[in-house]
Amino acid sequence: MTARSTPRPARPVAAPAPLLHPRNRHQGRYDLTRLVTVHPPLRDYLIRTPAGSDSIDFAAPAAVRELNRALLKADYGIAHWDIPDGYLCPPVPGRVDYLHGLADLLAEDNHGQLLQGPQVRVLDIGTGANLIYPLLGQAEYGWQFVGTDIDAGALASAQANIQANGLQAQIELRQQTARGSIFAGLLQAQERFALTLCNPPFHASAAEAARGSQRKLGNLAGSKPSAAATGKRGAPALNFGGQANELWCTGGEASFLRRMIKESVACREQVLWFSSLVAKSEHLADIHKQLGKAGALQVQQVDMAQGNKRSRFVAWSFHAPAARQAWLAGLA
């Protein structure tokens, strides 16, 4: 099977996105009736809002996990998805938005045509136990993924999801054993990737991550977290979970992205577009400065939104437009 182009129009990458991407399946409110029909265990987590409509308790980790299972099964044909307790449980709509934005990025270099198929190879840095980007990217675009992580336990969970869904030929996992390194030691000499993506740890310490979780739970639950979202001794749980390396690293997001940009120079000939989510807008100026110093020939900042949450990703390439077009033409 080869990469194939489809004549759907691509969204201009440089334009800010006030709402979810137009190709995102999750516009508007969740159809909980449909989701419960596809995934009956979700019914146990339905709550009634003051306005009289059905919802789930987004502050409760178990409810968020069952919602993800329902969405993945109903909209992406992913029959089995599980993560160990305490690992990051990512919101599906925002994650798939990142993938749609990257698909548009490739389309700009491919005469506006979206690229699908396994010859579009993608490197997911920090794939986690949830494996969310490879699962969604394979379902939406048929891309082939290599997912990496430093956590052997996370990779074991990710591998179980791969095998349960019969995706061994589409998704490969590699452990990064060199702590402090991002790309070094992961790429084989002759392999090339059209894209890399990453959701970096954005806190600088465990204490900062805990404070962030408390703020988020307060926003979700109003004045205080629900009982389902409260852990031992009344301490707030993480509604979306997260291990230490998923949530924080020394220096936080800014330091991580500086290292990523620096390391990307060494493997620039093997990657068409590098990219990463950027959680904190105050880091953008330094990111663009570092990319200029690194010699990136093209930089794209793509804004995203889900409800009141604003996010963005930054992508950069060391290849001129003609070279990028030639790269993608070689995938046909």
Automatic annotation (TrEMBL):
GO CC annotation terms, alphabetical: cytoplasm
Reaction(s) catalysed by this chain's protein:
adenosine(1618) in 23S rRNA + S-adenosyl-L-methionine = N(6)-methyladenosine(1618) in 23S rRNA + S-adenosyl-L-homocysteine + H(+)
Q: What class of enzyme is it?
A: transferase
Q: Could you say which EC number(s) this protein's record lists?
A: 2.1.1.181
* Residue ranges that the Swiss-Prot or TrEMBL entry lists as coiled coil: none
Q: Could you provide one GO biological process annotation from this protein's UniProt record?
A: rRNA base methylation
Q: Which Pfam families match?
A: Methyltransf_10 (PF05971)
Q: Where in the cell is it found?
A: Cytoplasm
Q: Which InterPro entries match?
A: METTL16/RlmF, rRNA_lsu_MeTfrase_F, SAM-dependent_MTases_sf
Similarity annotation:
Belongs to the methyltransferase superfamily. METTL16/RlmF family.
Q: What is this protein called?
A: Ribosomal RNA large subunit methyltransferase F
Q: Which organism is it from?
A: Stenotrophomonas ginsengisoli
